[in-house]
């Protein structure tokens, strides 16, 4: 959801938040606005500060500096229990002596919100696909079902925001993919704002409205899943989110929001768009990112980069070619056409190219 002047007040605002532990900066001046009903993911490698940022939203850690606002009100000093925030963690702590129903009802009873309790608990259990499991103890259900109980337990209190810290990472891949789809459906059906932490870029791309890509405590990019994949603004984002070919080039000419490029000393002028405001000038070294699926391979001569086929691997619908070129090692993923075999055998000299609209230019 792009930020515009007409956008309503964000439900959650992270305003220049920093967290320092014993002189080490875990979260570094992070600013994020989250709209009501949005599914926002914090994505990044281990140790980049995702959990620390989430823990500050929950009230388990206090920011060293900066503010966290909920509906415009600074809640940095509020205790965790005073915040209208639900939590779902990887190591969920369900009550083993209680059955599924009582686990889910617990939050409402603790808050003395017992009016309509039975209907609320049963509706939420139906929403997460657990009707019929009310009487089971949490030791008598599967890992995936326990994760649904944890989700139901948090959703039943209708929090303004639900924080989820790697909730699916203990599950096997198939179950994980299934729950990703369900979680997204549940989020849209309830309209509750989700802040979801993961280090899995596929999970982030498939579920999120917007993704905050974090690296070393900082948010390098905060944009829609499509924008993050197709227009990475930094080398880190280009490489962390999806496979990419990243190579050096030189800007020959700058014309408004476009630059002409020469690649690897080969005069290969192409005009590509740059992020508005990016400080790229003629003569500058830049990085060029092209996804493997946008690299085309052919034999025709012409103004294209020469490369040699180093290997190819078949993966069902596509074939991935590893290519050695003057711009370095490249990967090209092309559709597999049955009956054609591998049209470009090992050692073959080929020409590679790309459509200009599929190229992203990243300042050095
Ligand atoms: N209580 C703490 N005391 C000292 N250092 C901490 C504390 N909590 C986190 N850190 C450090 O802060 C940095 C960020 O940690 P954090 O857990 O937020 O990363 P993360 O991105 O969530 O990683 P992971 O995916 O591995 O959970 C790390 O270097 C970590 O060692």
UniProtKB/TrEMBL annotation:
Entry GO MF terms: ATP binding; ATP hydrolysis activity; transmembrane transporter activity
Organism: Gemmobacter megaterium
Record bears the keyword Transport: yes
InterPro entries for the chain: AAA+_ATPase, ABC_SmlMolc_Importer, ABC_transporter-like_ATP-bd, ABC_transporter-like_CS, Mo/tungstate-bd_C_term_dom, P-loop_NTPase, Transp-assoc_OB_typ2
Signal peptide residues on this chain, from the entry's feature table: none
A GO-annotated cellular component: ATP-binding cassette (ABC) transporter complex
Keywords: ATP-binding, Nucleotide-binding, Transport
One Gene Ontology term from the biological process aspect of the record: putrescine transport
Highest taxon in the source lineage: Bacteria
Name assigned to this protein: Putative spermidine/putrescine transport system ATP-binding protein/spermidine/putrescine transport system ATP-binding protein
Domain ABC transporter span(s) in chain numbering: 12-241
